[in-house]
Design goal:
The strands form nine sheets. Strands 7, 8, 9, 11, 12, 13, 15 and 16 form an eight-stranded antiparallel β-sheet that branches. 35% of the residues lie in helices and 29% in strands. It contains 19 helices and 35 strands. The chain is of the alpha+beta class.
Length: 631
């Protein structure tokens, strides 16, 4: 069964609600005040099923909107998710102010399909009806409702005349409405909240994309509250699931009617982020006044309404009829995604002045490539849009889940669109993170330069530590690791343990530094286990203290010298000889005390205790009380 949402539009008292009732048998005016005053105040709903030529059933959900200028904000809450519009014009009054405003709103929302309906034809003569048709031809010329392409349908809700023609026209237009993707990520803008006795909180709305099933967990935006779907209804009937394009009612657990309201959105949990800033492409109506930079407007998107400041990009004002890039700074966080349409109304007096489409609801502030990026979003295909979104993150890359949050496209759609760029190497996939390959080349060059400069400044150190290098690169750990692996594979860098250095790079020493290194090594090699204090050895060198310490660090790293305690350093040969003597001593006795060890090593207690503790650490001995067991 194909589902299509039909919205009414038109001036007050032009017969929209009566027309819907004549078509469906349902009175969309549900409020007591509406019935008493005889006008529609809030949006109402009805439904109708018609047979398609194929034998399938067409389910039409009607959203009936108020026509009074005071209730345009309610009208806007109803038309955001419609597939086609019935532009209703009373034959006895023709085009009126709200006819024009509602028509402008439909065009700004890119409704794209509709039917012009002339109502109250029983009140006028044929000649009057012909005059009205001529007025409409002029008014609608070159629009999506151009009467040359689709003539107006004349009806009378009172007599029933023309209703069959209208039903046939509805079938013809509804067949052209493209099917929505039920596998997309679900979004339900809430347009009504109420309590149903025995069930609790119920919300309704037009499911603009995806599928919602009974028992699903959803998140309420922008509050972040989690709710569970206890029951689903479509046009008053309980169903297992609702799919995109259907008028949907959800019975929710975990929320009260005070915690959810019109303008909020239900969507899958932990998927999207509400935004307070969105980059957009906006269009000003020809009838509007010039829109200045930093102007405040009323912003309407689906069922939400908030104040917004319009920050124009690259200009001081937008002229009537002109299109421009801008950033909307919202008074309240709102869930918006690229492709969402919006309406702007003047701050005061409150009239519709324009609208547009969201390009980016996750803008990066003070980014020089912003305007070029937005032009790609405005006109590019899915692949180029995703590549641009990845590229703007530079070498940081972006997680696949964040791409889903930025675009509103499902993980499957995103991965499919990126398949070619990943295969061709333009996009690198590092686990769940995606990186634009050309930006990684810049990071590689930066890394090589950092290592080269480190060698120049530290000739006595073999290489820079990985962590220090990552800090200089300012890259996420997974991106840095992958980039370093590439550079090693390309033989541009080498890694030794935790040190990174240029290929074949060793320690470069001047003559005095090489002499100092030999002097330090000789001093400790000749001392055996009765080593001098390190500071005494260093004080005899010709090099300064900083370079002397780097030479010692080099000898320690190469394990020529071994630090046994904070102030005792031994040559590796002396410690190797000691281990051999301990092995020979084990043949005599497996246990040794401090006194016996002093005799064996030929050292005083000053050296004996640190040496025994060292032998414990390297598992030559194990302390048991006041003795050591030789292992």
């Amino acid at each position: 069964m194909k589902s299509v949402i039909v919205g009414t539009a038109g001036h007050i008292d032009h017969g929209k609600t009566a027309l819907v009732k004549a078509l469906t048998g349902i009175d969309a005016d549900r409020l007591e005040e509406e019935k008493r005053r005889g006008i529609t105040i809030d949006i109402g709903f009805a439904h109708l099923e018609l047979a398609l030529p194929s034998g399938e059933t067409l389910r039409l959900g009607f959203v009936d909107v108020p026509g009074h200028e005071r209730f345009v904000r309610n009208m806007l809450a109803g038309v955001g998710g419609i597939d086609l519009v019935l532009l209703v014009i009373a034959a006895d009054e023709s085009i009126k102010p709200q006819t024009r405003e509602h028509f402008d709103i439909c065009r700004l929302l890119s409704v794209g399909r509709g039917i012009v309906v002339l109502t109250k034809t029983d009140l006028v003569e044929r000649e009057t009806l012909d005059v009205v048709r001529l007025e409409l031809e002029e008014f609608l010329r070159n629009s999506f409702l151009d009467l040359v392409q689709s003539p107006a349908v004349a009806v009378s809700a009172l007599t029933g005349a023309g209703l069959d023609d209208l039903r046939q026209a509805l079938v013809k237009v509804a067949v052209e409405v493209p099917a929505k993707d039920p596998t997309a990520l679900a979004r339900l803008p809430v347009d009504r909240v109420f309590i149903m006795k025995g069930f609790g909180a119920v919300v309704t709305g037009t499911l603009v994309c995806g599928t919602i099933q009974q028992a699903d967990e959803l998140e309420v935006f922008p509050t972040g509250q989690r709710v569970r779907v206890r029951g689903v209804q479509v046009h008053g009937q309980s169903v297992e699931q609702a799919v995109a394009g259907q008028r949907t009612a959800l019975n929710l657990a975990g929320v009260t009617t005070q915690e959810v309201a019109r303008g909020m959105v239900l969507a899958p949990p932990s998927t999207f982020h509400p935004t307070s800033q969105s980059d957009v492409l906006l269009t000003l109506l020809p009838s509007a006044k010039p829109l200045r930079d930093r102007a405040r407007v009323h912003l309407h998107a689906y069922t939400s309404e908030t104040m917004a400041t319009v920050a124009l990009l690259g200009k001081k004002q937008v002229s009537p009829g002109e299109t421009a890039l801008a950033q909307l700074r919202l008074g309240e966080p709102t869930l918006l995604l690229p492709g969402d349409r919006f309406i702007m109304r003047q701050f005061s007096p409150v009239v519709t002045i324009g609208g547009g489409v969201v390009l980016d609801a996750s803008p990066i502030l003070r980014w020089p490539g912003r305007e070029a990026f937005l032009k790609v979003l405005a006109s590019g295909d899915a692949q180029s849009i995703l590549e641009a979104r990845i590229a703007r993150r530079n070498h940081d890359g972006i997680a696949l889940s964040e791409l889903v949050a930025e675009t509103g496209w499902s993980r499957q759609v995103t991965e499919k669109a990126l398949a070619d760029p990943v295969r061709e190497g333009r996009i690198l996939q590092l686990g769940d993170r995606l990186v634009h390959a050309p930006t990684l080349e810049g990071l590689k060059l930066l890394t090589i330069n950092t290592v080269t400069n480190f060698h120049k400044q530290n000739p006595l150190v073999r290489g820079i530590s990985r962590e220090e290098l990552r800090h200089h690169a300012q890259a996420p750990a997974d991106v840095f690791a992958a980039m370093l692996e590439m550079l090693v594979g390309e033989k541009k860098l080498e890694v030794a343990g935790e040190l990174v250095h240029l290929p074949g790079r060793g320690v470069v020493m001047r003559d005095e530094e090489a002499d100092s290194k030999r002097m330090i090594e000789a001093a400790f090699a000749s001392a055996g286990l009765k080593v001098p204090a390190l500071k005494e050895v260093l004080s005899q060198l010709k090099v300064d203290q900083v370079r002397a310490q780097k030479i010692v660090t080099l000898l320690l790293r190469d394990k020529v010298l071994v630090k046994v305690s904070d102030d005792l350093v031994f040559h590796r040969d002396a410690l190797g000889d000691l281990r051999k003597r301990m092995s020979s001593e084990k043949a005599k006795s497996e246990r040794i005390d401090v006194t016996r060890f002093k005799d064996l090593a030929g050292v005083s207690r000053k050296y004996a205790i640190p040496l025994l503790e060292y032998l414990d650490r390297v598992h030559v001995t194990r302390r048991v009380g006041n003795e050591r067991v030789i292992l």
